[in-house]
């Protein structure tokens, strides 16, 4: 049984009965505004989700009462800030079920997390003639760093292809794996077409060759419960700003034995044990990989966002999002001239579409006039656009605070787009 099927089977009845979306919406002050005279309909959650009041409040408490640098002061405020920052790391550890908190490295976001692994692990382990495997549906953040690495080392980038529904072809993946493969880097969930990849299978296959796997979890962490020990992934990177926390927060999880062997991504303060002009020795994990003053307020905010998610019931939120996706898919499919891009059997609440004879940017602009925020463009996944032979798509991405009425508003606005352009 698939992950989403499992969640739906156990949670759907409860989600329908108990998910009080109006109550949940009260937690998000940004949603209470009008845009162009219309109530805001925020459907750009895959780019950045909104922040609940308790996360905002936690940030205010930090700035009003605790602001100070961490790890280096014996004074009261520094100790408070350090406790809050390291407390956030403990929350992350529990949230993803890492073995130890030191396996959770704080970074500015997914992009930095992937670059940290490319730099610290990839540059050490990939040589001439070696191969790196990614997939056809990656965000540029999980393409470009590996391309840079391959260029530098004379290695080869191999790409797992996908079918017309936007599902990876696992047989082709198995055929790509060989003794030259040094790392596999694949998205848990595609940001452009919403596909949920069978990440556990992908990891298991790579491990048969002793190859580590980095999961780009920027979308996965938002829409699925993640247990890094159960997945047995070697690295898992995600951004706070897509999971109801402030920008500048993020995590790259790595198995301790791999992180230990990695070169530091940046050199500077807080990552050293001793420094002389002749030689520097490095601190242990996680500090070795966190040079300089980090985004203290943002990471504390990430801890508060995790508290929030734990409080609302993760599984029910996911089940509700699946209901919304189903409803939106049915309604958009019924509009003549609309084509949905990405029709995988396993999808998260990301809905990419095009309207015949209308450029997605025009869709985005008209929807904005109606107060609706969607993203129009290539979604930092140009190869996906090339694969589906479209220049761009419009993308509605739903969070658990969106409603069926908002889907109806979206549908009416798309009908208006078609009217204007017909
Ligand atoms: N990987 C995936 C799957 C993503 O969705 C994103 C951001 C990133 C990596 C990069 O994350 P960052 O926080 O470091 O920027 N995705 C999007 C998006 O879909 N629209 O805007 C940003």
How would you describe what is shown here?
The chain is α/β, with parallel strands linked by helices. It has two domains: about 5-30 and about 315-420, Aspartate Aminotransferase, domain 1; about 55-310, 3-Layer(aba) Sandwich (Aspartate Aminotransferase, domain 2), CATH 3.40.640.10. The chain is built from 16 helices and 17 strands. The chain has helices at about 5-20, 20-25, 55-65, 75-95, 110-125, 145-155, 170-175, 200-210, 220-225, 230, 255-260, 295-310, 315-335, 360-370, 380-385, 405-420; strands at about 35, 40, 40, 105, 130-135, 155-160, 180-185, 215, 235-240, 250-255, 270-275, 280, 340, 350-355, 370-375, 375, 395. Strand 5, helix 6 (about 145-155) and strand 6 (about 155-160) form a beta-alpha-beta unit. The longest helix is centred in the first third of the chain and has 21 residues, at about 75-95. The radius of gyration is 22 Å and the shape is globular. Ligand 7TS binds near residues 141, 142, 187 and 219.
Labels describing this entry:
16 helices; 44% helix; alpha/beta; Aspartate Aminotransferase, domain 2; seven-stranded mixed beta sheet; binds ligand 7TS; four-stranded antiparallel beta sheet; 16% strand; globular; 422 residues; Aspartate Aminotransferase, domain 1
